[in-house]
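We store amino acids, C-alpha cells; thus:
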Amino acid sequence: MSPLWLLAAIIIVALVGAFLGRTRAISSVNGNVAALHSRPGYYGSYVLIWTALPAIFFMIAVLIAQPFYNHSVIDKELRTGYTEACATEMSRIADDTDAEQPQICADKEEYEALETRRGLMQSVVGNVATGLTLLDAETNKKLHTGLVAVRPTLKTVGVPLAEDVPKSVVDAAYKLNSTKATGNLILMIGVGVLLVVSLVFSYLRISPKLRARNLVEGNIKVALIAASSIAILTTIGIVLSMLFEALHFFQHVNPLDFFFGTQWDPRFTSAGREGGGDGTFGLLPLLWGTLYISIVALVVAVPIGLFAAIYMAEYATNTVRALAKPLLEILAGIPTIVYGFFAMVTVGPFLRDGGALIGLDISARSVLTAGFVMGIMLIPFISSLSDDIITAVPQALRDGSLGLGATRSETIKRVILPAALPGIVGSILLAASRAIGETMIVVLGAGAAANLTGNPFEAMTTVTVKIVNQLTGDLEFNSPQTLVAFALGITLFVITLGLNIFALHIVRKYREQYD
C-alpha cells in the first residue's frame, strides 16, 4: 500500500473516530449538552486528533528511516558480493603467477575507496530492483539463477542499463526488494495497530468532565508553533549545509586566496596537474560582477518604479490606476528565461549597434545589457509595493500639509514619502535581493566571463551563475571545483543578510520619527 493510500485510511478512521467521540459525549449526558464541559464538536475533534497523530508520526518516522536502512542493506550486500566474487577469482588463478589482478577485485577496491562509485552502484541497484518488480515470476527465476542476461531482460520492461551488471548487483537488488516489502509490511501493521489503540484509548477517555476544548486548542497551538518554525528550521538547515561544505572547500583552498583573489579560473591547467594545484578561486571578480549588475538594475528600476508608484497613488484617476497597475504587474509574471532571451536577441544587439553609431564599443553581452533588462524585471516589485505603502499613508497627513499651504508636490516630497519611507526601503531591498539572486538574465545578457573591470560595456558574470556552472559539471562532488559553489552560496547569504540588517536600521530610524 502506498503512503498516500495509507494516509487516506488514517483520515477515514480518524473521521469515524470523531463521529464516535461526539456521539459518546452526547450520550454520556443523555442529550443534555449543557452538562458537558465543552461543545460536542470538541470531543469529536479530540478523538480525531489522537487517533490520527500517532499513526501519522509513526508513518513519517518509518518513511524517513527506510531509505537510510535500504542504503545500508545495499552497501552490505555489494561489499559481500564483491568480496566473494573476488575471492573466487583469486582462488581460480592462485597457481598462475603471471596472472593480472581480476577486474572484479579492482571493482571491489574502487567501490570501497570512492564514495562516488558507491553512490553510482547503489543507484544501479535501485534501477535493477525497480525492473525486477516489473518482470513476471518465471523471468525473475531465470534471472536469479543466471539463465538470462540482466541488461537485455530489463530493457524489455523499460529499464535501460548502461552496461550489464554482475551477479552481486542482482542479488543486492533482490535483497532491496525484500527489504522494501518487509518495511512496507511493518509500516501497515504499525499504522493499523496504532490506529486501533489510539481510537480505543481516546474514545474511552470521553466523559462529561473531560476538558476537550482545552486539549484541542492546546494541540492546535502546538501545530501553529510547529508551522511557524518550519521557515526558521529550513533557513538554519540551508545555512548549516552550505557552511559545512564550504569548510570542506577551505581545506583545499586558502580563505584569503578565495575572498581576496582577483582571478577566477577553477579549471585544472597543465601546470596545475603537475604541481597538484586546483586552479584559481578568486571571489572578487564574481562579487564585483554581482554588485555591478545589481546596481545598474536598481538605477533603472528604482526611479521608474517609484515615479510610477507616486503617479498611481497621488495623481492618477481611478480608471487609469485600475488599468495601469495590472499592466505593470504583468512584468512580474514573465519568466526570467524570457527576459534573458529578450536581452540576448533584442537589447544586446540594439545597444551594440547603437553604440557603434556614436563610436562606443559595446558588447552584445555586457553589464549594461543585463542590468537594463533586469531593471525592467524589477519595476513591478518596486512600483506595486511602493504604491500600496504610499496609499496607506493616512489622509490626515495630506490634508494637514495642504491646509498649511503646501502644494501637492511639496506634500509628496516632504510628508508622504518620508512617512512611507520604511515601506519604500523594503520594496527596494526586495528588488535588490531579487537582482543579486538572478541567474538566467545574467547568463544570456552578460555572459559567463569573470572580469574585474569598471567598464559597463564589457561582459561579466555573477556569483549565482558560477554556482550553477560549478554544480552542473562532471567533476566529483568532493572536488574543490564543486565545493566552491557552497562557499559562494554562503558568501551570497552573508551579503543578503547584511543588506537586510542595514535596511532594518533605516526602517527603524524613520519609523520612530514619523509614527
The two ends are 59 Å apart (CA to CA). The CA atoms of residues 312 and 324 lie 8 Å apart.
